[in-house]
Design brief:
Blueprint (H helix, E strand, L loop, with lengths): L1 E4 L25 H4 L4 H33 L6 H26 L16 H10 L1 H35 L1 H4 L2 H6 L5 E4 L4 E3 L3 H36 L4 H55 L1 H29 L2 H6 L1 H10 L5 E6 L6 H22 L4 E8 L2 E8 L12 H10 L4 E5 L6 E8 L3
Parallel strand pairs: 4-5
Antiparallel strand pairs: 1-4, 2-3, 5-6, 6-8, 7-8
Helix pairs in contact: 2-3, 2-5, 2-8, 3-4, 3-5, 5-8, 9-10, 12-13, 13-14
Length: 450
Amino acid sequence: MATAYGPDTRDQHRPGTGAGDHPPAKHVLPAPLRAPFEARAWRELAYVFLSLPISVVMFSFAVTMTSLGLGLLITFLGIPVLAAALGMCRGFGVMERGRARGLLKLDVAEPAPVRGKGGLMSWVGAALKSGVSWRHLLYSVLHLPWAMFSFTVAVMFWAYGWAAFTYPLWRWVFPAYVGVDGIQLYGDSTHQVYLDSPFELAVTCAIGLALVLITPWVVRSLVFVDRLMVLGLLSPSRLATRVSELESDRGVVVDTAAADLRRIERDLHDGAQARLVALAMDLGLAKEKLTDDPEAAARMVDEAHGEVKVALQELRDLARGIHPAVLTDRGLDAALSAIASRCTVPVNVTVDLESRPAQAIEGIAYFTVSELLQNVSKHARATRATVDVWRVADRLMLQVGDDGRGGAGTATGSGLAGLAERLGAVDGILVVDSPTGGPTTVTAELPWRG
């Protein structure tokens, strides 16, 4: 159902969905020609070159300490030796995550440290029961064969490529110091074949150029496996990550609930309560004047009657801010239409839902759209806005767009940052696309939970 509000809603405009609306940065050279000279290619090559010596050290230590620990299990010493090996492997993991972060721009969260209940043996037991520690040990063992393969392939492509590409510059070394005309391709007792003619030099240089251009993509495919290994073996477990997210979300929910309670208390204290106190005083004065000055008492009662109406309106607004009755009774379509009617710019509302989501999700969706439309009214300097609500599989999608000045973002301290935290507390997502000059599109995604 589509509902239009405002003086001019015939020109309906649905904004784009995100960063894809912006044209990509333009480069003089195409990506294949640009790749060998980009910083990313050299960072990835450095990562591959460093992997071999680092992996040799990790592999040697892991195999030696694990073998020693397993061999000493017949005695009590094997258990702490194994725990020490796991602890050192976790230390290697810290180094590897830092290396991936610096050279591959792969940001991997740090796993939770091993904590015992107290004492050395408690820590040893916790280390041996930690699946993260054993995954670090597995990484130390498995990374060496892959590092050897990737190092060999990368060095071969890189060295042969640049050597062949620059061959015309250093061919003089062969006749000057080796006594031959160039690189020998074939030779036996009767004849030899050297790369020495202009045509052969040109072909060699062309082959080298092709290898130089291919090398960054070969190295990129090699470090892709390294990325998978770091993410799969050196990152926190999914369960631990989920527990951390839930703890953070719980804190956000508690803070949000406390802030809402403070807001309600402040609104009651500064609004309806203050008016009711003033109303009680006015009625008390009117009661005293009722016998001496009936006309003054009547005027005071009339003023008190007006104050009662204002207090009732404030209480209705406060109740609507807690949970509007129209949302409970008629759903998102009617509730969002009511919000749109109070916006300072024309708003086109489109709600395409065959059923209603869970009440909690419906309430979050309502207050999300309400806050976004308040931002449109206060900050956007827009002439029109749109609200679209639809369902995709088990997700509720909200999109609020306007043709204002743009520049909105989820920087720390902004209202959108707080809204993103609220949505994140229920596994929701907030995406803001607001280039300077507009238009602005804010897309929210919530779980359906019908």
